[in-house]
TrEMBL record:
Protein name: Autophagy-related protein 27
Top-level taxon of the source organism: Eukaryota
Gene3D superfamilies: Mannose-6-phosphate receptor binding domain (2.70.130.10)
Cellular compartments annotated: Cytoplasmic vesicle membrane; Golgi apparatus membrane; Mitochondrion membrane
Principal subcellular localization: membrane
Amino acid sequence: MILAAALLALCWSLAAAAADVRSLDSLAEHCRFSLGNQRFNLCPVFEANEGNWVVEYEVPTPPTFTKTSYTISLRGALQKNEGVPDHEQCPDGSWICMITSNRRLFEEEDPRVLQVIPVAGELSLKHRDGSRYHDYFPGLNITADFRRDVLHVRLHGGYYVYQHQKADLQFICDQDVEEPTNPITSWAWNGTHTFSWRTKHACGETVVTPTTSSEQTPTSDSGVPEPTSPPEENGPPDDSEPPDNEQNLIDPDVLAGRSRRSMMTIFICSASVVAILVYALYFPPRRLQHLVTSYVKTHPSLLRARVGERVLVRWADEDFVLDGGEEDVMVNADEQFDALDEQIPLKPSPRRSSVLTNYGSAR
């Protein structure tokens, strides 16, 4: 029972639901949102610096220096730079653009562009012949979720060398930081570019859900419920219910995480059941042994596959052929005449308590 309870608790813990996820059509228009019982207001963050940031770092790669620069826009697509060739900047519709370049030790030399990666945006990518990429589906698809005290805002839609790209803005609550703040790069791997952003606006406000008992229908003095006034035709929508276009999109990473957790839960539960069955088979408890023995005694048909003594004797008579050069020595008869009718049982008597170690062997 203890093992079964532990197994059940493990399955429940592995099958726990994932964090609440919400889709946002626009960061500027939907900068106030709720995730579970937490309410966030990132409007001061998105409106600062006119919604544009440049995050860059440089590392030595002898004999050159390699520089990585991210241009981030959270209020719309990036504007084209007329003084830069098109092949050295991200295509139209990019919200986040990564450019990698390197230079030699002389700073006065112009850097050489190595990579131009549209990380996120609503792109319209085409091959040189004008055909579209068959594995790219345009769409920004901004999602937000709150996990482990970190607010994740993800922007999808990037594409580079047959690989999808996305940005993960990780907002961390910090009441002591001086506003406005800027993001910093964390890591980039397998098409995911993460940024750490410390701000006091990432500290969510806990929302207390009212109980049903406190929600009462207004009544008049006579005790008759008063009709509720209809909502205004052009009035603002209720904050508790997001628009229809914000309810259906789910972050693909969350779906993949749920699938992996489900598969892991099924695997661990199946392995645990098999382990319990193997343990019960090799080390059965006494109660289980008594139950199995009683069941077998009441159902003798289960033992029909066992070969009887008559069949064993018949097989022995059929195979009892002596070659000319062999001599058979009987062990239970002294004279040759008595040995012709000797019968040797094929199994020892169950009445004998001692264990026969050399039964059936010639001496």
